[in-house]
Amino acid sequence: MVLSHKKTGSLWVLVLMCIPFMSLAEQPRTEKFGKTNIGTLGVTLAPSRLVLSREQAVQLALQANPNVRLSAQQIAAAKARRLQAGGLDSPTLFWEWEEVKRFSPSQFGNQVIGIEQSLKWFGVRKARKRAADIGISVFQANQLRVQQRTIARIHKAFDQVLLAQENVTLVKNILRRVEEAVVITRARFRSGNAQYIDVLRTRISLQRLQNLLREATLAESRNLRHFNLLLGRPENTSVELRGKLDFRPETFIPKAVLDRIDNEGPSIVLLQRRIDQARQNYRVQRKNRAPEVTLSLGRQRLFDNNNIDYAWAGQVSLKFPFPGSDRQRGLEQEAQVMVETARNRTRALLAQIRSRLRQRIDEANTLSTQLLSFREKTLLDADDQLKAARQAYSVRRIDALNLVDVYRTYLETRKNYYTLLVRYRSASIDIKTNGEDLWEIEL
User: Fold this and answer.
1) Where are the alpha helices (DSSP H) in 192-253?
2) How much is the average pLDDT of 32-51?
3) Which is the CATH superfamily of the domain at 56-432?
4) Is the separation of the CB atoms in 255 and 354 below 8 Å?
């Protein structure tokens, strides 16, 4: 078959139009999970970049942090147990028969069809509901504790990321200056105005700073991963933090802080609720001495000499522990021991709480004094020394050894200042969040 020029041109146009659809058909299918597309090769695209201030990070963590969500689920479970404590046991439907001669219901003798219900003695259900209510308050206090603990950890992680970023910026700045010094020293050596040892000193300093930059970058990525986990986000989420490490000197008075925590601290409330819960569980065990009443009501068919008659039938039964039985005494003694255990744990933990808070208060006040000295004296001297050393080296008043020593001193001074600042902010955050991140409480 011979195609004309016009037909051949139309065929090529049709082929060109089909190529995009053919390329689309060859692409692997992807399934969307939220904002992340996962292809058939298992490649996960990076989530969108997050830009967060300190307050936004706290709010996001309170919504998505796994521990905060777990505390809310524990409250829901405690409320479900409250429903169980106030409910009745499931009723029992029964069918009884007698004088079976043939296995046919019409040939059975006397029969009773009815319902049976077990009831707790007066006050037992009320005591159990009261114990369940205290259990709800325990987990509510724990939720407040988890929230304050999460807030403290978010602030600390935020500061650690900022600290790592400041260290990266600081090392890059000094690294750039040392690179300039290496170039100048080589030029002077080639012109005969410097010794080869000066070249070696600047090169060794440069290599050392390059390693410090790698370590600082690694620390930044590690802190960002930890920060993302606290936010409840994937660890590879790209985050940009808007904030700075500022120093706001404060003086903390131990008595005022401890009095506030005694009145408002979630841990104190939680420990007291645990004692109340143990006491109420003991009362429940005491109430279990009372009998359990079972009521039965049924319709009875009486069969006598082919005469059938119908009537109502009922039964009342009591189930109670044998007076002085080992089982009941054991349950009550165990509950009483748990009360003493809760009290002893509370005493021990309260002493630990007060001790650690006093330590944090001392740390915050001491670090505040050191930071004031740094800001008013040491940092200014380090800046002046850096400027003077660069100027002196440019006119050959100092050698490369002195220049490198000045750079090293400036770098260590700045890093020490930022480290002390983060330590101070961490202690301040612990005090403001009632120290909830300083100890563990098992539920």
Assistant:
1) 196-231
2) 44
3) Outer membrane efflux proteins (OEP) (1.20.1600.10)
4) no
Identify each DSSP E strand in 120-276 by its residue range.
Answer: 239-242
Q: Provide the terminal-to-terminal Cα distance of the chain, rounded to the nearest Å.
A: 87
Tokens encoding 427: 């202690």
Domain boundaries, the chain: 56-432
pTM summary value: 0.80
Q: What is the dihedral of CA 216, 222, 223, 226, to 10 degrees?
A: 180
Rounded alpha-carbon distances, angstroms, from residue 126 to 91, 117, 122: 20, 18, 8
> Tens of pLDDT along 294-331?
999 999 888 776 778 888 989 999 888 877 788 888 99
Cβ neighbours, 10 Å, residue 369? 12
Phi-psi region of 112 (alpha: psi -120 to 50; beta: other; left: phi over 0): beta
Q: Which residue has the tokens 């046919």?
A: 104
52-101 confidence digits (pLDDT tens): 999 999 999 999 999 999 999 999 999 999 999 988 888 999 888 887 77
Q: Rounded distance, CA 64 to CA 53, Å?
A: 16
Residue pair 148/436 in contact by the 8 Å Cβ criterion: yes
Count other Cβ atoms within 10 Å, centred on residue 143: 19
Tell me the C-alpha distance between 212 and 216, whole Å: 6
Instruction: Give the separation between CA 371 and CA 30, rounded to whole angstroms.
Output: 54
Distances (CA, A) of 59 to 62, 215, 237, 333, 366: 5, 31, 17, 46, 31
User: What distance in Å separates the CA atoms of residue 438 and residue 401, rounded to the nearest whole number?
Assistant: 45
Q: Write the pLDDT tens digit of every residue in 330-388.
A: 999 999 999 999 999 999 999 999 999 999 999 999 999 999 999 999 999 999 999 99
Q: Calculate what percentage of the chain has a pLDDT beyond 70.
A: 88
**Distance in angstroms (rounded) separating the CA atoms of residues 224 and 168:** 14
